[in-house]
Amino acid sequence: MFDLSGQREAPVGVVPAMAQAIYHRGPDEDGFLERPGLHLANRRLSIVGLADGKQPISNEDRTVWTVFNGELYDYPEKKPQLEAKGHVFRTHTDTELLPHLWEEYREKMFEHVRGQFAYCIWDSRTNEVVIARDRAGICPLFYTVVKRDGTTWLLFASEMKALFASGMVERKADFQGLNHVFSFFAMPGPTTVFAGVKCLAPGRYLHFKLGSETTAEQATTQKTYWQVTYPDRGHEDYGADEKKVVDGFEQVLFQAVQRRLRADVPVVSYLSGGVDSSLIVAMANKALGRPIPTFTVSVKSKGLDEASEALQTAKHLGCAPVVVDCGHDTLRTGYPELIRAAEFPVIDTSCLGLLHLARSVHQHGYKVVLTGEGADEWLGGYSWFKINKLAGWADKIPGVPLGYALRKVFLAASGTPSFPYSAYRRTQRDMGGHNGWTDLYGVMSTNKLRFFAGAARDTILGRPALDDLELSPDLNRWHPFHRQMYFGARIMLPGHLLASKGDRIGMHSSVEGRYAFLDEDVVSYMAGLHPRWKLRGVMKDKFVERMVAERWLPNEVAWRKKKMFRAPMDTWSSANPGGAPEGGWIDQVLSPESIARAGYFDAAAVARAREQLSKPGRGLGRTSLEMGLTAVTATQLWHHLYLGGGLCSLPQVGQ
């Protein structure tokens, strides 16, 4: 925490309490730095430089200090380069790069910082502060400004629960943050579900000086050092030489895997039945010269269990897999823990499987795990890319709203509410034209019309969620396919995959996830390719990756269709069997009394949805309703856990 004037010492006990709240992120050791105007703390998960990596860490003359979460994978290459420039290193940890990079390059240091990171640098010579987050948004960072006894404090942390542990930050819902959850299926930032708390967006940083003239606005203005971008349409790498394109992708991906195996502790890997994690495991085996231990989650539901396919792949690659079961009962008993870890309403029930998977990694004595996540966002692996290619023709007739008309008819037939044409047109304009992403998640957004009530409804329907994203001004210069990919990378990647499936879920069990597909070189290579290398025809998604995978895996694995890894959501529809207390919270948070107490939703609409889902059925209308009711349930649970709502018998966060 910083006194923006740079004068007052932090209140006694506040920062240690904040650090204790995120003990799970770093159970190995802690460290503190106190100076007039600031108090820094770190909870360390020791992975590199085990013996001498305690933080905060400084340069050799102790004038520049840093606290850091993450990994700088090119540490072995960067350290001798800085030493050649006269910098003196005293430890064997990658953290020490940061104060020296600041000394050498100042704000241009971001060109030299690679990996996954959230960090703070304080330069005592100039009283400057830099707080930064990595390009993809793998490592989280939250901050808020509070005024107390005439002093303006800026508090930051890797998780919001640390901010609340300070005792200085009021817990209050941000309706616009809930708008994001119901619009995007995610919380991409900078808006959060807590009023006054912001998320540092991927590829951004804060830079300010501590001094009497420093304002809160100056300190919290997010600056961009990197953002998702694509070549102008017509300037993509068309790749006439197929072998050259495939060779190039194979090279950058293999090097990314090699870098992510750098650690002073053993590294393991997740393994599903899909091509992404299978390829990462195959490459890791090659780099290590031995099979890497693998962990697989088994969702006990028809059509969703990938365990058998993963076991076949593990056998082919010579790996000894650990299989973690996750069934219907796990949803009821474990969802509260998922919301505690994620800190916002999580709609994707499969995230609970990842929570149990990370716990198993920890229980087996490991700290670091490779994952195949990140390929779908950058190589067109999601269903909406195919849907758009099949149905996008309806939006290409100038001046004829055929696409909107067809969607409205379809939604009406399935009993799903729809937004007026003016809202549809505005979304189209803001997104640079029709976007396949909205065909899938636009269905989720209709639940705002179905469930919200009162002041929450007025606020949420009064401001489009897209307004908060500060979208790239270059959207209209890109190929339409890349415009679709942009929203996956800007919204789903940091707001869902890396939040409710990534950092918060892994670090809840003191496990660090590493993402080879999000390596800087891999991302740059994928972005530069023509769309035909991402989706060939209608069905051949992640085409260049699958061409590489043919060299490493059996063909049936390389070309295996993607399964949307999602646990059943209609579990919420039925009452708790037998009234078991571990599952009774669902009925409690969805009771008319609890709905009224929280003040977000229409109790009658919730009751109708539960009744409707208690009957058998299939189709997009049912899926939309399942998603909506899951979002309502998760929001009610989040409110109880974090806002002291008294909506059920579960203990609240901080109790």
Explain how this protein is built.
- The protein is α+β, with helices and mostly antiparallel strands and 655 residues long.
- The protein has 4 domains: 2-224, Aminohydrolase, N-terminal nucleophile (Ntn) domain (Glutamine Phosphoribosylpyrophosphate, subunit 1, domain 1, 4-Layer Sandwich); 242-373 and 498-558, Rossmann fold; 391-447 and 461-484, no CATH class; 570-643.
- It is 42% helix and 14% strand.
- It has 27 helices and 19 strands.
- The chain has a 6-stranded antiparallel β-sheet. It has a 5-stranded parallel β-sheet with strand order 15-14-13-16-17, with helices on both faces.
- Helix 10 crosses helix 27 (620-643) and helix 19 runs parallel beside helix 20.
- The two termini are 23 Å apart.
- Mean pLDDT is 90; it is low at 576-581.
The DSSP helix count reads 27
Q: State Rg.
A: 24 Å
By CATH, the superfamily of the largest domain comes out as Aminohydrolase, N-terminal nucleophile (Ntn) domain
How many strand units?
19
Quickly count the domains.
4
**Overall pLDDT:** 90
Annotated CATH topology of the largest domain: Glutamine Phosphoribosylpyrophosphate, subunit 1, domain 1
- CATH secondary-structure class of the largest domain: Alpha Beta
Kindly name the structural category: alpha+beta
Low-confidence stretches: 576-581
Strand content: 5-15%
DSSP helix fraction:
40-55%
Outline, from the CA principal axes? Answer: globular
Oligomer: single chain
Order of adjacent strands in the largest pleated sheet: 4-5-6-7-11-12
Distance between the termini: 23 Å
Corresponding CATH architecture of the largest domain: 4-Layer Sandwich
